[in-house]
Design brief:
By secondary structure, the chain is of the alpha/beta class. It is built from 13 helices and six strands. Strands 3-2-1-4-5-6 form a six-stranded mixed sheet, sandwiched between helices. Strand 5 and strand 6 form a beta hairpin.
């Protein structure tokens, strides 16, 4: 991890987390005054949908809009300064913005949500989740997907991926629950040595109290997710809905409607039931490590 990335870490105060916090406060103020989103939007010359996005922390805040809303909601002037200061802090660029030239906007949005999440649940059938990848494994996967990229770009993409992992080591890390298809561990990106290092890293990660890893074995009778990788993000602010992230080749889906989220949550639960329990993970990983050693003989 670069010193620049590490220096910018401040648990729970990243811009996405601050936007979510401010949006939640604005939503509570509006609802307490029994003001509709439409009326609030009219006050700041915006649409109802913009108020919704602001309250979900999905868009940057204009300080003038926040000031106008606070006045409209009847917040005393003596109480507005802290919220306006929060708006200014929330508009600061995230550490990931320095990679905006190599990462698409739809993925940068995910990085902000991931940093703000209190729980990340992921189902993977192709790769080790980015939050758990080693540098060598990440380099092999990225090189495979960007074969024509120059070495300098590959290294920056690796740095971006590893930079995400700082959330696992901050004072208030999110809970991470990853369910991996066994094929993920058998697919040798980078060769046996790279895979050995990656699996050893998963053994270490599984020992962290906030990281839980399950493996769906080849002999499982069914696959709940039908080969579709996805992540579900939950936030500490209970008023905010969970967000389902489904990455595609050239874009990504962000789903937060209750029906969509419930379907993915049920799918995740089935995947957990089909997988070996977390207390079996270490033994499975060590068995694969032994087989990797045998294959080289």
């Amino acid at each position: 991890m670069s010193g620049l990335i590490a220096a910018r870490q401040d648990a729970g105060t990243g811009p996405a987390a601050l936007r979510i916090r401010l949006g939640t406060k604005l939503r509570r103020l509006r609802k307490d005054r029994e003001i509709t989103r439409e009326a609030a939007g009219w006050e700041i010359r915006a649409s109802e949908s913009k108020i919704s996005r602001m309250e979900l922390g999905r868009v940057p805040f204009k300080e003038r809009d926040v000031a106008d809303l606070l006045a409209f909601y009847g917040v005393p002037e003596s109480e507005r300064d802290d919220l306006l200061a929060l708006a200014r802090q929330a508009n600061a660029p995230g550490w990931w913005q320095e990679f905006a030239d190599i990462a698409p906007p739809w993925f940068l949005s995910y990085l902000g949500l991931e940093e703000a999440a209190s729980l990340v649940r992921a189902y993977e059938v192709h790769f080790v989740p980015g939050l758990l990848q080693t540098g060598d494994y990440a380099r092999a996967v990225i090189t495979h997907g960007h074969a024509d990229a120059p070495p300098e770009e590959i290294e920056r993409r690796v740095a971006l991926r590893l930079g995400r992992q700082r959330v696992l080591h901050r004072p208030d890390p999110p809970q991470v629950w990853a369910v991996l298809d066994e094929a993920v561990l058998r697919r040798q990106f980078g060769g046996p040595e790279v895979m050995r290092g990656q699996i050893e890293a998963l053994v270490d990660a599984a020992e962290l109290p906030h990281v839980h890893i399950q493996i769906v074995p080849f002999h499982a009778t069914a696959h709940a997710a039908a080969g579709l990788p996805f992540a579900i993000l939950r936030f500490a602010e209970t008023e905010l809905p969970d967000v389902v992230y489904v990455e595609q080749l050239t874009t990504a889906l962000y789903l937060d409607k209750p029906g969509d989220v419930d379907l993915y949550a049920e799918t995740m639960e089935r995947a957990c039931l089909e997988a070996e329990p977390p207390d079996r993970t270490s033994a499975i990983l060590h068995k694969i490590l032994d087989e990797l050693g045998t294959a080289e003989l």
